[in-house]
Structure formats: structure tokens, C-alpha cells
Hints:
Radius of gyration of chain A: 21 Å
Radius of gyration of chain B: 16 Å
Strand content of chain A: 35-45%
Largest sheet of chain B: 5 strands, mixed
Largest sheet of chain A: 5 strands, mixed
Mean pLDDT of chain B: 91
Oligomer: heterodimer
Mean pLDDT of chain A: 82
Number of strands of chain A: 8
Shape of chain A: elongated
Structural class of chain A: alpha+beta
Number of helices of chain A: 2
Distance between the termini of chain A: 36 Å
Strand content of chain B: over 45%
Amino acid sequence: MTVTRREALGLAVGGVAALTTLRFAAPAFAAGNAIEDAIMEFTGGSTPGDGDITIVAPEIAENGNTVPIEVSAPGAASIMLLATGNPSPGVATFHFSALSGAQEAKTRIRLAKTQDIIAVAKMPDGSAITTKRSVKVTIGGCGG
Amino acid sequence: MAKVKPRVKVPKTASVNEVVTIKTLISHPMESGQRKDSKTGEAIPRKIINKFAASFNGEPVFMANMEPSVSANPYIEFQMRVPETGVVRFEWTDDDGSVYDLEKTITAA
């Protein structure tokens, strides 16, 4: 089959149009203020500072459906994990007690795309500390 | 629906006040509510385990609230101090209200 110049032009325009539609049809991902709201609700209004809190996660996750993640914050009462690029930012909140041997937890999470993971720890005295870590995702994991 | 089967890995014995690692896994699809049925195009309703709790002789040890961003077959690992011989109880709460539970005994020497 020979492709005429007219047909080629038509195809190109059609392709661009399709791409644009796709981009606008993509689900609205969580906006920045939803994340701030979630943090404020968790800490009870205090802005978290720096502190002894760490996230262990792979730098590059091939499969966003199950990304191993570990979070620890010695002395914390609870830790909240947020995935900034997911359709809803909340991931999990861990609560510790006097019987917890260490204030750390490991789990596996879904990541829709390359994004920052935020961990916020609430200390027993009411203060809060936070950290974040970027994870590159090759195949997103939020189905569609 | 596939049968939900919880599994945990707990040491059988520990010395008093030893900190042990507890690993838990439960088979569950964790349907996020974001996916669509490929045939009908309708959204598949959300159905996840939203809460996990572990207690030792009735005392709370560890609790987790989970959102749809937790992977299918949620795996949780945490640390526990063993003050005495006792029973660790694990409970997973589903969106539909059902609770899956499991108990393990740790002997403290």
C-alpha cells in the first residue's frame, strides 16, 4: 500500500489529537493540598519537622503493583505513609504500643507512577517529624 | 470469591523481653475501587482490608489502618517485645465487615 502525502498528514494530525484526548482523560491525580490536609489531620495541626525517621524503599521499582517499603521512627506513637502520585494519597497508618519492640513496620504498596513517598511520624509529646523518598516506577500499579 | 487465608510467622519460643519479628500475610485481592471491568466498563467496587491489629494476651501491640494503595495480599511485618508466655492474636477487618483472625502462642523462657 502506498501512503500519499495527504494520508500521511491526516494520520499525523489524528495521532496528535488522540494523544491529547488521552492526556485529558487520565484520572485526576491527588492534588498537593490533599496531601497537606492529610498530614495536618494526622498531626493535629502542627507542621512536621526533621527528625529520626527513615523510609527504606527501592530506588527503582519495576512493578508498581507491589513495592516493598519499610519505615522506622524510633520512639514514635504512630507513622503515616503517603504516596503523593497515587489517585488517593493515603497508604497506611501504623500505630505502636508499649509492647512494640521497635517503631518500625514493613509492607508492600501500590504506586501508580514515579513519585515521592512521604512518611510522617507522630511522637508521644505531640510533635511530628517527616521525611520523603523518591521511587521510580517502571510499570504503574493502580489498574485501569 | 477466593478464600481469604491469613498466614503469620511467629517464633514458638523467645526469651523474656526479647524483641521478635512477626510477619503476616493474608490472601486478599485488595480491590482498590479504581479498576474498571474490561467487559462492561463499570468500576469494580472497592473491597479492601482496612484494618489490621495484633494483640498479646489482650494488650494491643500493633495496629495498621490501610488504604487502597496497599498491595494485594497485604504483607505486614513488625516487631514485638515478648514480656511473658502468651497468645498473640491477629485480626484483619474487611470493608464488608467480616473479620479474619488467627492466634499463635509464644512460650517465653
